[in-house]
Amino acid sequence: MNVDLNALSVFVLVAEERNFRAAADRMGVTRSAVSQTIRRLEETLGIALVTRTTRSVTLTEAGEQLYRSAAPAVAEMHAAMESASVPSGPPRGQLRLAVSSIAESFLTGPLLATFAEAHRQVKLHITVTDEEFDIVAEGYDAGVRLGEVIAQDMIAIPVSAEQRQLPFASPDYLRAHGTPSHPRELSDRRCIGWRAGVHLAPYRWEFEEDGKAFSVAVDDAITTTDMALMIRLAVAGAGITFGLEESFRAPVARGELVPLLEPFCPRFPGFYLYYPNRHNMAPKLRAFIDHLKR
Prior knowledge:
Blueprint lengths: L4 H13 L2 H8 L3 H15 L4 E3 L4 E3 L1 H25 L7 E7 L4 H4 L2 H9 L3 E7 L13 E5 L7 E5 L6 E5 L1 H7 L12 E5 L10 E5 L2 E5 L2 E6 L2 H9 L4 E5 L4 H5 L4 E2 L11 E6 L6 H11 L1
Parallel strand pairs: 3-4, 3-5, 8-11, 8-12
Antiparallel strand pairs: 1-2, 5-14, 6-14, 7-12, 7-13, 9-10
């Protein structure tokens, strides 16, 4: 079977965008050209890959399977072509990064701003998300996550100092309800929880005592997917919340929040930039890694 590799690349782009018009705009072609390419690919394979509607595109079961298999190979192909096409020129193209919303030190701005200034032919596309997914299959060049959740087959370089998670509460709340002396007391307190996504479980409140890790099942009177809202609620005295120390640095410095139970909160490896181990790394990603190291 002779499959047009360009058609496969178009299909992967359509699968990522879930929209013919958006895919066409990224490629600089017409929507009709994209539609015809997908139709020819379906005819070659003898099976429907997408279900078309007036507003979006949904992958069929066969389409989902093809996308999961083809996306990494297409990403490798693009990286190899890009590396070969501009061996001595400046890095160029779109650099796609998936970054955790709690990677505060990475997202503060200066690091990304100085890279954009130094490499004006590279366009940064940064998706801030706490969903865990395969960055290669989704077409990203790299991601930034806590080291403990990164797959072992990825290359990872640190982009932050060590981290630790702590409970926090406002001085008014502590005056009214007292300061807990042990994490297990938190199960009887009003707590403000955070979850990475609507369909995901709330973040676990984990501690350590005498070298042994344990978690506490707290009563999340309030849960939110917005870290900033969680912090504002804690400042307002709505209860005790829990998160990475650096996320709370500003309200703690202003005296609006107080860290709690520090002896039970050990430090652990922080955030890492991670990316697949490719033989042909795209110059844009290499430039970004070199910028980070400097």
